[in-house]
Amino acid sequence: MQVTIYTTPTCHFCHMTKDFFKENNVEYKEVDVSVDHAAAQAMVEKTGQMGVPVIIISKDKEGDSEPEDTIIIGFDKDRLTEILGL
User: Fold this and answer.
1) Angle at CA 29, nearest 5°, toward 60 and 21?
2) What is the pLDDT of residues 2-35, one digit of tens each?
3) Where does 1-86 have alpha helices with state H?
4) What is the domain class of 2-84 according to CATH?
5) Contact 70/22 with Cβ under 8 angstroms?
């Protein structure tokens, strides 16, 4: 499983999400879209969202070479808990 969070430095909900990940020992890759404009564009193309945080959780599917992505917009503690199996 791979967790990627698209953030900006001033986003309160981004900080809440990263704190949640740290409290639950969830490894994640952070992408700061305020400085990485190509990543910002890719995020919008993939999700249709311009706001952050955008969390993409990629899980390997059984018998399939392509991972399945779950996209969560904003800090949704209940959904993150469920999807991450916490």
Assistant:
1) 90
2) 999 999 999 999 999 999 999 999 999 999 999 9
3) 12-23, 37-47, 77-84
4) alpha beta
5) no
